[in-house]
Design a protein that fits this description.
mainly alpha; two-stranded antiparallel sheet
C-alpha cells in the first residue's frame, strides 16, 4: 500500500506522474526515462511506422508472444513446473475444498493474547514502560499541549494572520487569500477548536516525522548498505494500511494523544526518508567532485553541497510528510486523538452525514492549504524572480531573509494581541453557521428519491446491491472455492510475468503466509473487494486519461478536481459513499475507487502525453486514425506508465478497502477495527499481518522488474 502508498497516499504535483515510493519507481520517474521502453508491436501500418519513427523497437528481435514486455517461453514454464511439483503433492497430502488446510495453519491467538495481557498488566510498573515509553509519552503530551495552548492564545485572528502572511511570502496574494478564507470557513462551521486540536497534533507529528525520516534518508542516501537494509523496511511501512499501526500503539501507550502522534510519525516518515535519499543520491557529481578537490571533508561536502542540491526533494518530502501525517492524524481519532477526525468518526458511527460533512470540510480545507503552501515553498527554490510592481518588489525586499520571517511573526503577534484586546480569542459563536440540518434534509431527500425506486436506471442502493450480487459475491465465492494450491500457482505465474523468480517466490510466500495465519477466507474476501475496485478504477481512469491526454482543455478542467481529491485524507471519502450507498461492501469499494482514481488518471495522462511525437507523426502520415494511433502507438509506448498506474491503483485501493471495515466492508478491515475496539491483540495483529501480506503480494505482481 499507499501510498503511496498513496501509500498510504502521496499526492502528486499537477502534471507529474506519481510514485508510490516503491523501490526503483522514484528513480525511474526522476531519471526522465522516456515511456517508450516496450515493443510497439507489429500491429498494422501505424505500428510499423511508429517503430521506424524512433520508438526504439524496430531492431529488437521478435521472440514470440509476450506480456508486460516479457516473453512467454521456457523461462516461464520451468519455474512453474517446479512450483507445481512442490504444491500438488502438498495438495494431495492436505486435501481441502478451497480452504487452506487447518494442519498448515498456526494459531497465534494464544501467544498474542498472552503478550497483550502482559503488556497491559506491566504498562504501569515495568521499567521499560516507566523509564522509556513513559518519557516518550510525556514528551508527546507536553509538546502537543504546548502547541495547542499557543494556538488558542494566538486566537483566530493571530492564527489566520500568520497563515496568510506565510502563504503570501511563499506564493503571493492568491494563496494568502485562500489560507485566510480556509481558516475563516473552519470558524464559520463551528469547528475552530477541533481544527486547532488537529493542527497542534499535526505540528508535533510532522516535525518528528521530518526529523526521523530525514535521518533515515540521510543514512540511505549516503550508504548503499544502509539503503539495502532500509528499503524492505520502508516497503513494509508503506504497504501496511494506516489502521494496522494503531493497535500496537494503543497497547504500549494506551488510548490518547501519544499513541495517535507516534502512529502518525511512523506512517509519515517513509516518504520523507525516500525523497531525502533520492535527493542525496542525485546530487550533481561534478559539484561534489569540485568540493572534494578543494579539500572539503565529508561533513563539509554534505552541509555545503549535497543538502543544498537536494533542497527540492527535501521540501517535497516535507510536503508528503504533511499530507500523509494529516491523513493518519484523522484516522487516529479512533484511538482518542480528538480534533476533526473524532467529529467525523462519531458522526459516521451514528450515520449523521450532516455532522460528518461539517467536520470533513475543515479537514479538506486544512489539507489544501498545507499542500499548496508546502508546494509553493518547493517551487520557489531556484526559481527566477518574477517582475512586478515597484511596491511589490519593495515589500519582497523588506520581507526577504531571516529578518523577513521575524517581521512576519511580529506582525502576526501584533494581530493576535489586538484580537485578545478586542476579546475575540475564540471564534464568536454568533458567527457560526450550522450545515448539519440542511445536509441531513438533503440526504433524506436523496434517500427518498434517489436511494431506490428510480425509474429505468434504479437508485444508488440498487446499484450497490447489483454490484454486490453480480460482482463482489461471485468473485468472493470463486476465490474461496478455488483450491489453495491453484491460487499459489496463479500468484507465482503472475509474478513471473512481471518480475523474476525472486518476485514469484515473494508473492507465493506472502499468499501462503495468509493461510498460515489462519485468515484465508477473510483475506480472500478482502482480495475480492480489492480486485473489483481496481477493475472499476482502471476502467474509469484509463477512459478519463485518454480524453485528458488528447485535450488540453479537459486536462485543465480536471487538474483542480484531481488536486483536491489527492489531498483528501482517506477517512473523508467514507462520508459521501455512506450518504449515497448506505453501509456494506459496495460502499467500501466505491470509496476506494474514488480515492485511487486521481493517481491513475494523473500517471496515465502523463504517460500518454510523453509518447514520442515522432512516432505519432509517422502514424498520422501513414493514414492511421485516432483510434489506431491510441491502440497501436500510444498505449504500447506508454506501457511503463500504465503498469505504474496499475500498481498505484492496487496499493491505494487496498488502503481504503481496509478502512471500509468502518462502514460494513467486513473481512480483514472489520477484524482490525474489532481488535482496536476490544483491545484484542490477537485479532487485530493477525488481520494487520494478513493485510501486509496481501499488500506485498499485490505490489509484487503489479510492479514490473526494472529492465536491464
Amino acid at each position: 500500500m499507499t501510498a503511496a502508498t498513496a501509500p498510504a497516499r502521496e499526492p502528486s504535483r499537477p502534471g507529474a506522474p506519481q510514485s508510490s515510493g516503491r523501490p526503483g519507481e522514484a528513480d525511474r520517474l526522476a531519471s526522465g526515462r522516456p515511456a517508450a521502453e516496450g515493443p510497439a508491436g507489429g500491429r498494422g501500418t501505424a505500428g510499423r511506422g511508429a517503430d521506424r519513427a524512433g520508438a526504439g523497437t524496430a531492431d529488437r528481435p521478435r521472440s514470440g508472444p509476450s506480456l508486460f514486455g516479457r516473453p512467454l517461453g521456457r523461462g516461464l514454464l520451468l519455474p512453474l513446473a517446479v512450483a507445481a511439483a512442490v504444491l500438488v503433492p502438498l495438495a494431495i497430502v492436505f486435501p481441502a475444498s478451497g480452504s487452506w488446510p487447518s494442519a498448515l495453519a498456526v494459531d497465534l491467538s494464544g501467544p498474542l493474547g498472552r503478550a497483550g495481557d502482559w503488556i497491559i498488566d506491566h504498562r504501569d510498573s515495568h521499567p521499560l514502560f516507566l523509564y522509556f515509553f513513559g518519557h516518550i509519552s510525556n514528551a508527546v503530551v507536553v509538546s502537543v499541549r504546548a502547541v495547542y495552548v499557543v494556538l488558542l492564545a494566538a486566537g483566530w485572528t493571530g492564527v489566520t494572520a500568520l497563515a496568510a502572511l506565510v502563504a503570501w511570502r511563499l506564493a503571493g496574494v492568491r494563496l494568502a487569500l485562500t489560507c485566510a478564507c480556509a481558516f475563516a470557513a473552519c470558524g464559520l462551521l463551528g469547528m475552530w477548536v477541533p481544527t486547532m486540536q488537529t493542527l497542534a497534533l499535526m505540528v508535533v507529528a510532522v516535525a518528528a516525522s521530518v526529523a526521523v525520516g530525514g535521518l533515515l534518508g540521510l543514512a540511505a542516501g549516503l550508504s548503499a548498505r544502509a539503503d539495502r537494509v532500509l528499503r524492505p523496511l520502508l516497503d513494509t511501512m508503506q504497504i501496511l494500511p494506516a489502521f494496522a499501526y494503531l493497535l500496537p500503539m494503543v497497547l504500549v501507550f494506551g488510548i490518547g494523544v501519544p499513541a495517535a502522534v507516534l502512529a502518525t510519525v511512523v506512517y509519515a516518515a517513509p516518504p520523507m526518508a525516500r525523497l531525502t535519499a533520492l535527493g542525496l543520491r542525485e546530487a550533481d557529481a561534478g559539484v561534489l567532485e569540485a568540493a572534494a578537490s578543494l579539500g572539503a571533508t565529508g561533513r563539509q561536502r554534505l552541509l555545503t553541497a549535497r543538502l543544498p542540491l537536494a533542497r527540492r526533494q527535501l521540501l517535497l518530502g516535507v510536503n508528503q510528510a504533511i499530507m500523509t501525517g494529516l491523513s493518519m492524524a484523522v484516522i487516529a481519532s479512533v484511538i482518542g486523538a480528538g480534533g476533526l477526525g473524532d467529529r467525523v468518526y462519531q458522526a459516521l458511527a451514528s450515520v449523521d452525514v450532516g455532522a460528518a460533512l461539517a467536520a470533513g470540510i475543515p479537514i479538506v480545507l486544512l489539507a489544501v492549504v498545507l499542500d499548496r503552501t508546502a508546494d509553493a515553498a518547493g517551487q520557489r527554490i531556484g526559481a527566477p524572480e518574477t517582475p512586478g510592481s515597484s511596491a511589490r518588489q519593495l515589500l519582497l525586499r523588506v520581507f526577504d531573509g531571516w529578518y523577513g520571517w521575524l517581521l512576519t511573526v511580529l506582525v502576526a503577534v501584533a494581530v493576535a494581541v489586538g484580537g485578545r484586546i478586542g476579546g475575540t480569542t475564540l471564534w464568536p459563536t454568533s458567527w457560526t453557521v450550522s450545515i448539519a440540518g440542511p445536509v441531513n434534509e438533503a440526504v433524506a431527500w436523496m434517500t427518498a428519491h434517489l436511494y431506490s425506486g428510480v425509474p429505468v436506471v434504479g437508485g444508488s442502493a440498487d446499484w450497490a446491491a447489483r454490484f454486490t450480487g453480480w460482482i463482489l459475491d461471485p468473485l468472493r465465492s470463486g476465490l474461496q472455492a478455488a483450491p489453495w494450491w491453484l491460487l499459489l500457482l496463479l500468484a507465482a505465474a503472475l509474478a513471473l510475468l512481471v518480475g523474476t523468480w525472486r518476485t514469484a517466490l515473494t508473492a507465493v510466500l506472502a499468499l501462503a503466509a495468509v493461510g498460515v495465519l489462519g485468515v484465508w477466507d477473510a483475506s480472500l474476501d478482502t482480495l475480492s473487494q480489492v480486485l473489483a475496485a481496481v477493475a472499476v478504477t482502471l476502467a474509469l481512469g484509463f477512459a478519463i486519461s485518454v480524453g485528458a491526454a488528447r485535450s488540453d482543455r479537459a486536462q485543465r478542467a480536471l487538474r483542480p478536481v484531481l488536486d483536491v481529491c489527492q489531498t483528501l485524507p482517506q477517512f473523508v471519502y467514507l462520508i459521501p459513499v455512506v450518504a449515497l450507498f448506505g453501509v456494506g461492501r459496495a460502499p467500501a469499494a466505491a470509496a476506494a475507487v474514488v480515492y485511487a482514481l486521481p493517481a491513475v488518471v494523473r500517471i496515465t495522462t502523463q504517460g500518454l502525453r510523453e509518447v514520442n511525437p515522432a512516432a505519432l507523426e509517422s502514424a498520422r502520415s501513414l493514414g492511421a486514425t485516432r483510434s489506431q494511433q491510441l491502440w497501436q502507438v500510444q498505449l504500447p509506448l506508454a506501457r511503463p506508465a500504465l503498469l505504474l498506474a496499475v500498481n498505484q491503483a492496487v496499493v491505494l485501493v487496498l488502503a481504503v478497502v481496509i478502512i471500509g471495515g468502518l462502514v460494513g466492508g467486513g473481512a480483514l478491515g472489520y477484524d482490525v477495527v474489532l481488535g482496536l475496539a476490544q483491545g484484542d491483540l490477537a485479532t487485530g495483529l493477525v488481520a494487520g499481518a494478513a493485510i501486509v501480506c496481501l499488500g506485498l503480494l499485490l505490489d509484487r505482481v503489479t510492479q514490473p522488474a526494472k529492465e536491464a
